[in-house]
Automatic annotation (TrEMBL):
Residues 1-36, 50-72, 165-188 are annotated as: Disordered. Pfam families: Kinesin. Belongs to the TRAFAC class myosin-kinesin ATPase superfamily. Kinesin family. KIN-14 subfamily. CDD domains: KISc_C_terminal. Residues 1-28 have a biased composition (Low complexity). This is Kinesin-like protein. It comes from Orbilia brochopaga. Residues 507-837 form the Kinesin motor domain. It comes from the Eukaryota. ATP binds at G597, Q598, T599, G600, S601, G602, K603, T604. GO terms for cellular component: microtubule.
Length: 853
């Protein structure tokens, strides 16, 4: 290993061996003469000095110098702990350096072992830090020095050997260039030439001293270097302390961060606690809300159940009425069946009678023919017998005569007598044979007579059964009669009950209908229907009002009526609600249905459109009256259609040329209203209504050409009179159904109208306020003695249909537009007043009847 260590000059040092030391032998004289110990001590001192001097100049660069870059942020302890074995010699060197005095002078004794340990510390390392290399070169130098002085090197260190010629040349060269010092080459002196040798030594000593001076210079340089290194160390230490300070600061920051972290954690914990508490509160709140919801739901459920119960009750009532209707239908069916049975029975009886008659005729014929046959046969046989008898008697007489003749010749003709007797015997046999035949004939006649008898008894049985059936039929007829009577009683009862139901609902009822906005209408009003799913009685409107100080406020206007129809309700739904009133007209009551509201609110649409109240009412009346036929009722119906315009009546079913010309008078007589010179069309079927409506609409159009927008400024009244008679009970009833499309209720200002328009305005205002007056007077009770029917043509026309014996329904029509809000509110207020009027119980129109009480 040591054999391959390179020398600073590139030559190799031979491995330390005794041979090597022996090689130096011939070149060195024994030092016994001079005092070998002295020489050796000098050489040793020199060697030690050179070794000390040969301390590596630049080899003490501490590895830590290079470290700060990477290890800047690392704590010192960490830096120290990461020092490897390679760093330790440098540390030792550093500590050695630190032992220099304040002057910066290096103490050789301290440096020497340091270098030594540095050199020894890394034996066998071929390449490594500068320190190792420097230490090795220093070692090399010291060894060389020692070798030169002939002193054996320690076993653990390399021992210098005598240089070869080549090495010597290099040594010389080195010497010149200030390399490692070596004694000068000179011719070998003889052993005895101690003086010469001393001279050489003296010379070498001088050279060495010179060299020492050089070395001292080098030492100074090294000291300088050490100082430099020291400065560097100080810098490094400053850096180190700076780093330490950084580290401390960072640690401080870290601690601060840790504290922040703790604070943050504490805050988070508090927040978490708060959140948990909030969550608990929210959960409680939710639980409470859920409980409330459940309770609300239960309440709602209960109310729904209640509603459903009511609905169920209502449905049950309806079912009951349907059941009653079914009963009626069943009775009707029964009656039809009974009729059928009766007709079948009659035809069966007729057939039976025919069959009986035919059988009787057949029997009679048979009997006659039999009797004829029997009598023919009888007479035939009797004739035959008589003939035979006469023949016999003749023969007997002739025989007797002959006998007489021949008696004499009796004896003579005894044989002839015997023959004659024999012939007589034969004849008797024939006669008896004939008698048997006659008897047979008689028995046949008897059998025939028996057959006739049995046929007669069968006919009698049949007669009996027919009589029995007749008995059943009459019993069934009686039952039918009873059922019909019951049915009639029930019908009367139904009418009474129906009337009572309507009475309970009030004789003036007010329905409110809001029409849908039309396509072109863009400013809808805000209208609510709060209980549409329920009773549908409420409506709420919202208007905006400006206070005196200019603040806009929204005002609510709630109203309640007998029924409120929202814009989605169609005419069919509305008719369902009024159909019972229409039924009342059939039951003999006067019924009046008004459509009240401003122009364009939907009055005409509700009353006269194709599926409006007028066509549907007539249709229902026809349908119901047809059903009542089975209960003995037959009805006659007649319709009139009049227009009240400017306090004049126009016949809308008359000639168009008579409009505004013919004067129609109103007469009241015993609860009946008659119109003079007004067309009344008998209605025989619902299809006739189309013609009635067409004619009325034509005349209205003609009237409209006379005055613009006349339909809005006139009242139209369709009057349907119904007269019913029950052919079975003799009951009679008369009812009137008045369907009125009123003029637009908008407040017309007198100031803006002139001429015809002013007249129209005055008349509309007059008639509508008269209607209001009549209704409120009717609601005044018994104290009010006078009802001002005569204040307008309209109220006078409807006198018998407004009040005590009538049923009244007012539709208050509502426009859905914001622009009409004020008019709408006025209409609704008027309707509210009407709905609060109680006009007493309606009475059936009294009609004298054959058996009415
Ligand atoms: N329920 C409804 N559904 C659909 N359209 C309707 C409804 N009601 C009214 N209308 C429409 O609104 C418009 C005005 O209605 P209508 O002529 O019936 O009002 P009005 O009150 O009779 O007016 P006037 O007093 O001028 O006769 C018409 O075009 C009509 O078709």
């Amino acid at each position: 290993m040591h054999s391959s260590l390179p020398r600073p000059g590139g030559s190799r040092l031979p491995a330390p061996s005794s041979a090597a030391s022996a090689a130096t032998g011939p070149s060195l004289q024994p030092l016994g003469d001079l005092g070998e110990a002295t020489v050796n001590s000098r050489i040793g001192t020199l060697g030690a000095s050179t070794s000390a001097i040969a301390k590596p100049a630049g080899g003490l660069k501490p590895p830590s110098v290079m470290r700060p870059v990477g290890g800047l942020k690392r704590p010192v302890s960490a830096l120290d702990s990461t020092e490897t074995a390679y760093d330790r010699p440098a540390q030792v060197a550093r500590s050695a350096i630190s032992q220099t005095g304040p002057t910066g002078q290096l103490r050789a004794t301290a440096v020497k072992p340091a270098i030594k340990s540095a050199a020894i510390a890394r034996p066998g390392v071929s390449a490594g830090s500068k320190i190792g290399a420097t230490a090795k070169s220093a070692l090399g130098r010291s060894q060389t020095g020692m070798a030169a002085r002939g002193k054996p090197a320690p076993a653990s260190t390399a021992v210098a050997v005598a240089p070869t010629a080549e090495e010597e040349a290099v040594g010389e060269e080195k010497e010149k260039s200030g390399g490692v010092w070596a004694p000068k080459k000179r011719p070998q002196r003889a052993g005895w030439d101690v003086k010469g040798r001393l001279q050489d030594i003296e010379e070498d000593h001088r050279a060495l001293m010179e060299r020492l001076v050089d070395v001292n210079e080098q030492k100074d340089q090294s000291s300088m270097k050490v100082i430099e290194l020291e400065t560097m160390r100080a810098t490094l230490e400053t850096m180190n302390s700076k780093l330490q300070a950084d580290l401390n600061r960072e640690q401080g920051e870290l601690n601060k961060l840790r504290m922040d972290l703790h604070e943050e954690q504490r805050l988070r914990r508090i927040e978490a606690d708060d959140a948990r508490r909030q969550l608990l509160n929210e959960t409680d709140e939710l639980r409470r809300k859920a409980r409330d919801d459940i309770e609300n739901l239960e309440r709602k459920n209960k109310s729904e159940v209640h509603d459903l119960t009511i609905k169920h009750k209502f449905d049950m009532d309806e079912l009951r009425s349907a059941f009653d209707k079914l009963k009626v239908d069943l009775a009707e069916e029964k009656r039809r069946n009974a009729d059928e049975v009766a007709s079948l029975r009659a035809s069966a009886a007729r057939e039976l009678e025919d069959t009986k008659q035919r059988s009787r005729n057949d029997m009679l014929e048979l009997k006659n023919s039999m009797e004829l046959e029997i009598s023919t046969m009888k007479s035939k046989y009797q004739t035959e017998i008589a003939m035979l008898k006469s023949t016999y008697e003749t023969e007997l007489a002739s025989v007797k005569a002959e006998l007489k003749v021949e008696t004499a010749a009796h004896n003579e003709t005894k044989d002839e007598l015997a023959i004659a007797q024999k012939m007589n015997k034969d004849m008797r046999a024939t006669i008896s044979e004939q008698s048997v035949n006659s008897l047979n004939m008689e028995s046949t006649a008897r059998a025939l007579r028996d057959k006739i008898c049995s046929l007669e008894s069968t006919i009698a049985d049949r007669d009996n059964s027919i009589r029995d059936r007749d008995g059943n039929v009459s019993e069934m007829r009686k039952n039918l009669e009873l059922a019909m009577t019951k049915l009639r009683t029930e019908e009367t009862l139904r009418r009474k009950l129906h009337n009572q139901v309507l009475e309970l609902k009030g004789n003036i009822r007010v329905f409110c209908r809001v029409r849908p906005p039309l396509e072109a209408e863009t400013d809808p009003a805000k209208i609510d229907f709060p209980d549409q799913e329920d009773e549908a009685k409420d409506i709420k409107l919202y208007s905006t009002e400006r206070t005196t100080i200019g603040i806009e406020t929204v005002k609510e206007h709630p109203f309640t009526f007998d029924k409120v129809f929202n814009p989605a309700s169609d005419n069919n739904l509305i008719f369902e609600e009024i159909s019972q009133l229409v039924q009342s007209a059939l039951d003999g009551y006067n019924v009046c249905i008004f459509a009240y509201g401003q122009t364009g609110s939907g009055k005409t649409y509700t009353m006269t459109s194709k599926d409006g109240m007028i066509p549907q009412a007539v249709d229902q009346i026809f349908r119901t009256s047809a059903q009542l036929t089975d209960k003995g009722w037959s009805y006659t119906m007649e319709g009139s259609f009049v227009e009240v315009y400017n306090e004049n009546l126009n016949d809308l079913l008359g000639k168009d040329t008579d409009i505004d010309k013919k004067k129609i008078e109103i007469r009241h007589d015993k609860g009946r209203t008659m119109l003079t010179e007004c067309t009344t069309i008998p209605l025989t079927g619902p299809d006739m209504m189309e013609e009635v409506m067409r004619r009325a609409s034509n005349n209205r159009m003609v009237a409209a050409t006379k005055a613009n927008e006349r339909s809005s400024r006139s009242h139209s009244v369709f009057i349907l009179k119904l007269a019913g008679t029950n052919r079975v009970t003799g009951e009679r009833c008369e009812g009137t159904l008045n369907l009125v499309d009123l003029a637009g209720s908008e407040r017309l200002s007198h100031s803006q109208a002139t001429g015809d328009r002013l007249k129209e305005t005055q008349n509309i205002n007059k008639s509508l306020s008269a209607l209001g007056d009549v209704i409120s007077a009717l609601g005044g009770g018994k104290e009010v003695k006078h009802i001002p029917y005569r204040n307008s043509k309209l109220t006078f026309l409807l006198q018998n249909s407004l009040g005590g014996n009538s049923k009244t329904l007012m539709f208050v029509m509502v426009s859905p537009l914001m622009a009409h809000m004020n008019e709408t509110l006025t209409s609704l207020k008027f309707a509210k007043k009407v709905s609060q009027v109680n006009i007493g119980t309606a009475k059936k129109v009294k009609v004298e009847s054959s058996n009415s009480p």
